[in-house]
Write a structure and sequence with these properties.
Blueprint: H1 4-12, E1 36-40, E2 43-46, E3 51-54, H2 69-80, H3 90-102, E4 108-112, H4 115-130, E5 134-139, E6 151-152, E7 162-163, H5 170-173, E8 176-180, H6 184-194, E9 198-203, H7 219-230, E10 233-237, H8 249-254, E11 260-263, E12 274-278, H9 280-283, H10 302-315, H11 320-342, E13 346-351, E14 354-359, E15 369-372, E16 375-376, E17 382-383, H12 396-400, H13 404-416, E18 419-420, E19 429-430, H14 437-455
Parallel strand pairs: 3-18, 5-8, 5-9, 9-10, 10-11, 13-15
Antiparallel strand pairs: 1-2, 2-3, 4-12, 6-7, 11-12, 13-14, 14-19, 16-17
Helix pairs in contact: 2-10, 3-10, 6-7, 11-14, 13-14
The chain binds ligand KE4.
Ligand KE4 binds next to helix 4.
Length: 456
């Protein structure tokens, strides 16, 4: 039997870092990744046959559990008719209509092959439609690896961008303005100064790439109001939150109507699919109906569309998101209780089927706390959390200040016990409908021991 280590060694000789996406390499938690051999339901198995309860779920798509029979059978059926046509196929409009039914702000949309393509295209559309070049993103938010997004806050008063990766042209980075997430005053100041020069604001409506950080009350509405006032477009990047924090995504959960939305992950059911869409007057400016160019060989691939259609059927089932939220709540409340028992300063944020765990420096007497986001009771009837459950972590600066070494120890202790959390203190976790009460009980048993290891 080939070992995880041998296969990773082989991969490192031909793939940069041995991976096709950096976070998979375990660089921020040390150690080597396991090599997955198969997945089913809430579990992954590595090549050595070890089973893991999986809270990464392929970084979001596996909300119904891995290898769901209805998705797999849809893929098998579609594949029998051919893998790719390069012509229109009926499933594209079918899936687009299914998405619009759940996300009505997407009056018209275009399929691409990843979240990165979706955000790159939405930004080009915003720039083309407004004739403006500058745009705003938020520190700690990730919108894929398009050049304009690999930019961090500059030191300048105008928050001019600084490339966050070699290869990103300074001239392009200068057009990206970066603000602190959840900082309403900073947004107001920037808009007062240059709102009428902005093409758009792009935001993760629940941040999932600085760990899980929910929007402060009023943050998203302020973005909406100021974009409307100054003629900038509001882009909700719902690649992660779409169909995960609520059936209609964060825009349904928080009642905000963006001009454009980007999607990915869940809408492909595990196959490579992204989408961008929104106001019809904007989308009709995309080629070939308009001059703003965007294209893709495998966009709208029939097999991927079939997977997406099957997945949306599953998430539309009555009570899906209520049940998913309750699973996430059981996990987070249990982790908070285990941390309290061990005297580890800890907090957890959650939103529907996504969550984040934070290890705090310093005095355990500060105790753990949790942040309850509105729990969607279905039909958008969300129960607002009591003010007492204010989030412990609601900014990038607070997330960065957390104890990464403690997270590393927790991550490896739970991994050794067969529980796979995201291999980074700055990633969100993902619950699936396949996770059972027993899975959560087993996870909490492993966590109880892991918190003891963190305490040392
Ligand atoms: P992809 O190009 O990876 O399909 O999507 C990019 C993207 C865009 N917007 C948001 C809000 C995202 O979270 C992502 C991708 N998410 C990461 C997880 N943090 C994907 C995992 C990875 O990079 O390997």
């Amino acid at each position: 039997m080939t070992s995880n280590h041998e296969l990773f060694q082989r991969a490192q000789r031909i793939l940069p870092g041995g991976v096709d996406s950096p976070v998979r390499a375990f660089k921020s938690v040390d150690g080597e990744p396991f090599i997955a051999a198969r997945a089913d339901g809430s579990y992954l198995w590595d090549v050595e046959g070890k089973r893991y309860i999986d809270y990464v779920g392929s970084w979001g798509p596996m909300i119904a559990g891995h290898n769901h029979p209805r998705v797999r059978e849809a893929v098998e059926r579609a594949a029998r008719d051919g893998l790719s046509f390069g012509t229109p196929c009926a499933a594209e409009a079918e899936l687009a209509e299914a998405i619009r039914a759940l996300v009505p702000s997407m009056e018209m949309l275009r399929f691409v092959n990843s979240g990165t393509e979706a955000t790159m295209s939405a930004l080009r559309l915003a720039r083309g439609a407004t004739g403006r070049e500058r745009f705003v993103k938020f520190e700690g938010c990730y919108h894929g690896h398009g050049d304009s997004f690999l930019v961090k806050a500059g030191s300048g008063a105008l928050t001019l961008g600084v490339p966050d990766s070699p290869g990103v042209p300074k001239a392009l980075a200068d057009l990206t303005l970066t603000l602190p997430y959840n900082d309403i005053d900073a947004v107001r100041r920037l808009f007062d100064e240059m709102g009428k020069t902005l093409a758009c604001v792009i935001v993760e409506p629940v941040a999932g790439n600085m760990n899980c950080v929910p929007p402060r009350p009023g943050f998203l509405q302020t973005l909406r109001d100021l974009c409307t006032r100054d003629g900038a477009l509001l882009i909700f990047d719902e690649v992660m939150t779409g169909f995960r924090v609520a059936l209609g995504g964060a825009q349904q959960l928080y009642g905000i109507h963006p001009d454009l939305t980007t999607l990915g992950k869940i809408i492909g059911g595990g196959m490579p699919v992204g989408a961008y869409g929104g106001r019809r007057d904007l989308m009709e400016q995309v080629a070939p109906s308009g001059p703003i160019y965007q294209a893709g060989t495998l966009s709208g691939n029939p097999v991927a569309m079939a997977a997406g259609l099957a997945m949306l059927e599953l998430v539309r089932e009555p009570g899906f998101h209520t049940r998913l939220s309750l699973k996430t709540q059981a996990l987070c409340d249990g982790l908070i209780a285990c941390a309290e028992e061990a005297g580890v300063p800890f907090s957890a944020n959650r939103a529907g089927g996504m969550f984040g765990v934070f290890f705090h420096e310093g005095d355990p007497s500060s105790g753990p706390s949790g942040h309850l986001l509105p729990v969607d009771r279905g039909e958008g009837n969300t129960e607002r959390p009591a003010a007492a459950n204010a989030p412990r972590v609601e900014s990038f600066a607070q997330a960065v200040a957390c104890d990464r070494q403690a997270f590393r120890r927790f991550f490896h202790a739970t991994l050794d016990a067969g529980v796979y959390f995201a291999p980074s203190a700055f990633e969100a976790g993902f619950m699936s409908m396949a996770h059972t009460e027993q899975d959560i009980a087993d996870t909490l048993e492993a966590a109880r021991k892991a918190f003891a290891a963190v305490r040392g």
